[in-house]
Design goal:
The chain is mostly helical. The chain has 17 helices and no strands. The chain has helices at 30-62, 65-72, 75-101, 105-140, 145-158, 162-177, 182-205, 209-234, 250-282, 286-322, 326-353, 355-359, 366-380, 386-398, 403-428, 431-435, 437-460. The longest helix has 37 residues, at 286-322.
Length: 462
């Protein structure tokens, strides 16, 4: 150890060695590696969705359909803000994976510290923006008058957890890039169980309905953020944190923003387009709104489990691109996409078959359940198609390209959806004509995304 580093943790690359939490993704059998890498991510994402579903389930079962509709009316808006943070985290994941794969210690450290600061600032900015505009945006979405007060109360409390969510996503991105997907699962499990227990306590015992589930959510979010930060400050890997070194690196900040901001905006604009879909839903009566809210929980469950393979795609392609292993880069993409497609197909068909049992978790009213089944059936048969779109976007990002994928998503998924709302849906005015826009936009965006990825891949090896 150098004299100037006496008493401090010495960080080295221990990739794949005993006692290390950093896994080498640049060698070995990709088929099994990607699967076993993704399984903890799938479990983590599934638990996160299930714990979020607990909010809706507890409200729907113990506070009634009005409270259920109020929380459900905020789903797309919450996804808008969290999607921005998830997009930023995807940029962090790519840059850390590239530097770990290339075994560049200094670059890894500077990237991690810069990402920590930017993530914290992003969480605070979105908190202030979200709280100050909540009621106005809900009004613009034509939220029902009987639902808007409860929806506003829920958002004002829930959004207080955005800084914690930003920090957890940062830590999860760093650990996943280094090949450690088990630790975030552990931390999420702990905070998630706390969320469910607090949901029941605040709603059933304290009679706080929508406020109760929002309070439970932010407590659990800060718990997971604390746990993952504590680990990063204690670990001795190259991505570990030291208080005296926390500072921003200008070039790393620029690179992170170049990847993370388009990714975040891509997610944000994607969900912004879905706000127009929510407007379409809100044009129906409160029963359809509640049924849509219940069925929409399946979207998050399937998307987030499929997203485990997109994270795997980014981590494996990133490390192998950093190590300049061309064949493994391409194979990582196709294997990840196959797994994501299979996951969406199996889960979608399962939800169609067991749809009424699934919806029964959120409501006991037959009319609400019938409305939910219409959405669940259409979406359940379509989820697998989204793999071709999302995996191509993750792959392009792992090769350092984020702006054009953002543009592809804006036009293929966002502009197309808004246009559909004001043309096809405006003409037919049925829930079927509303829900079919999802699969149509996925097909269009997947074609453009894969054409762009093919060009990026060819240029990357010149």
């Amino acid at each position: 150890m150098n004299k100037g580093n006496k008493g401090k943790k010495e960080k080295t690359i221990n990739t794949g060695k005993a006692g290390s939490n950093t896994n080498d993704l640049t060698s070995g059998n990709l088929t099994s590696q990607i699967l076993f890498f993704s399984l903890p991510l799938m479990a983590s994402n599934m638990l996160q969705v299930l714990f979020n579903m607990a909010d809706v389930a507890v409200v729907g079962r113990f506070a009634g359909p009005i409270a259920l509709g109020a929380v459900g009316s905020t789903t797309t808006l919450v996804a808008l803000y969290t999607g921005l943070l998830i997009g930023l985290a995807s940029g962090i994941n790519v840059l850390v994976a590239l530097s770990v794969g290339a075994k560049r210690v200094k670059d890894t450290e500077e990237t991690v510290y810069t990402a920590l600061i930017i993530s914290g600032v992003a969480g605070l900015v979105l908190l202030l923006l979200g709280v100050s505009s909540a009621r106005t945006v809900l009004g613009l979405l034509h939220t029902k008058s009987e639902l808007i007060d409860g929806a506003t109360r829920y958002l004002h409390i829930y959004l207080l957890g955005l800084p914690a969510l930003a920090i957890y996503n940062f830590g999860n991105a760093v650990l996943s890039a280094a090949g450690d997907t088990k630790r975030p699962l552990l931390y999420l499990s702990i905070s998630g169980v706390m969320n469910v227990l607090l949901n029941l306590f605040f709603v059933i015992v304290c009679h706080l309905d929508v406020q109760g589930v929002a309070i439970a959510s932010i407590i659990s979010q800060y718990t997971s953020a604390f746990l993952i930060l504590r680990h990063l400050f204690r670990c001795e890997e190259i991505y570990g944190l030291q208080r005296g070194k926390i500072r921003i690196s200008g070039d790393k900040a620029v690179r992170l923003l170049q990847l993370g901001v388009p990714s975040g905006l891509q997610n944000g604009i994607f969900y912004l387009a879905n706000l127009f879909v929510q407007m379409g839903v809100n044009s129906f009566d409160a029963t359809v709104v509640a049924g849509n809210a219940a069925a929409a929980n399946a979207d998050n469950l399937v998307y987030d489990m499929m997203a485990a393979f997109y994270t795997a795609c980014g981590s494996f392609m990133g490390q192998n691109y950093g190590a300049r292993k061309r064949e493994r880069v391409l194979r990582s993409y196709f294997i990840s996409m196959f797994y994501a497609f299979a996951c969406g197909l199996i889960l979608g068909l399962g939800l169609v078959a067991a749809g009424r049992h699934f919806l029964g978790l959120f409501t006991a009213e037959e009319a609400v359940m019938a409305a939910g089944m219409e959405r669940l059936t259409i979406m359940g048969l379509s989820y697998c198609v989204s793999a071709f779109m999302d995996c191509s976007i993750a792959a392009a990002r792992s090769l350092g390209k984020s702006f054009v994928p953002m543009v592809v998503v804006i036009f293929g998924a966002c502009v197309f959806r808004v246009t559909w709302i004001y043309t096809v849906f405006a003409y037919f005015g049925t829930t079927l004509s509303l829900y079919l826009l999802f699969v149509c936009s996925w097909v269009l965006t997947a074609i453009a995304g894969n054409l762009y990825l093919a060009g990026v891949y060819r240029r990357a090896w010149r």
